[in-house]
């Protein structure tokens, strides 16, 4: 048999849980942010990179592959940002050394390393989004030699 304080406690916990649910609802933004110009390498992005953690820093230099393609950035604080080489042209067009950038991606647990999914130049608002490697060219028609 429940005592009156147990019933009151149960009722108050239920009321707190119900009020917490109403507080935790998502409130729509009052003003939508201005759309940012973006450079998407490949098809339209399947996922929204802005849901990933954002990191901000000043670009000190680019990292290059042996062929000379840009495959990442090094920020002023020493953090290395990895990008795939097929984004090389888009990054070179959008970001310059000494620019402040906002990077959405995943940070390594024990190293100053970020795997970038998108890079936004804070001044120009140009965004480079990694949507995967480009599709291979179609095979040549039979008999073309």
What does it look like?
The structure is a single chain. This protein is α+β, with helices and mostly antiparallel strands and 145 residues long. The chain has a domain at 55-130: Beta Barrel (OB fold (Dihydrolipoamide Acetyltransferase, E2P)), CATH 2.40.50. It is 19% helix and 31% strand. It is built from two helices and seven strands. The chain has helices at 4-23, 88-94, and strands at 38-41, 54-64, 70-75, 80-82, 100-107, 113-121, 127-130. Strands 2-3-4-6-5 form a five-stranded mixed beta barrel. A hairpin with a 5-residue loop joins strand 6 (113-121) and strand 7. It is elongated and about 55 Å long. The N and C termini lie far apart (90 Å). Mean pLDDT is 78; it is low at 5-34.
Summarize it.
The protein contains two helices and seven strands; from the N terminus they run αββββαβββ. It is of the alpha+beta class and 145 residues long.
Tell me how many strands there are: 7
Count of alpha/pi helices: 2
Average pLDDT value? Answer: 78
End-to-end CA span: 90 Å
From the helix content, strand content and strand pairing, which structural class follows? alpha+beta
Overall 3D shape = elongated
CATH class bucket of the domain at 55-130 = Mainly Beta
Major sheet: order of its strands?
2-3-4-6-5
The major pleated sheet works out as: 5 strands, mixed, barrel
Q: Uncertain runs with pLDDT below 50, 5 residues or more?
A: 5-34
| Strand/helix succession | HEEEEHEEE
**CATH architectural grouping of the domain at 55-130:** Beta Barrel
Instruction: Give the helix proportion (percent range).
Output: 10-25%
In CATH terms, what is the fold-level topology of the domain at 55-130?
OB fold (Dihydrolipoamide Acetyltransferase, E2P)
Rounded to an integer, what's the Rg over CA atoms? 24 Å
Report the portion of residues in β strands: 25-35%
């Amino acid at each position: 048999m429940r005592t009156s304080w147990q019933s009151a406690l149960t009722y108050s916990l239920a009321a707190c849980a119900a009020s917490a649910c109403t507080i935790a609802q998502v409130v729509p933004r009052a003003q939508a942010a201005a759309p940012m110009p973006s450079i998407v390498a490949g098809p339209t992005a399947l996922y929204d990179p802005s849901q990933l953690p954002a990191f901000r820093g000043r670009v000190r230099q680019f990292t290059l592959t042996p062929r000379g393609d840009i495959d990442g950035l090094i920020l002023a604080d020493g953090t290395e940002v990895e990008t795939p080489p097929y984004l090389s042209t888009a990054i070179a067009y959008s970001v310059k050394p000494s620019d402040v950038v906002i990077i959405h991606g995943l940070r390594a647990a024990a190293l100053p390393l970020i795997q970038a999914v998108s890079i936004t130049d804070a001044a120009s608002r140009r965004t480079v989004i990694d949507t995967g490697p480009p599709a291979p060219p179609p095979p040549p028609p039979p008999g073309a030699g």
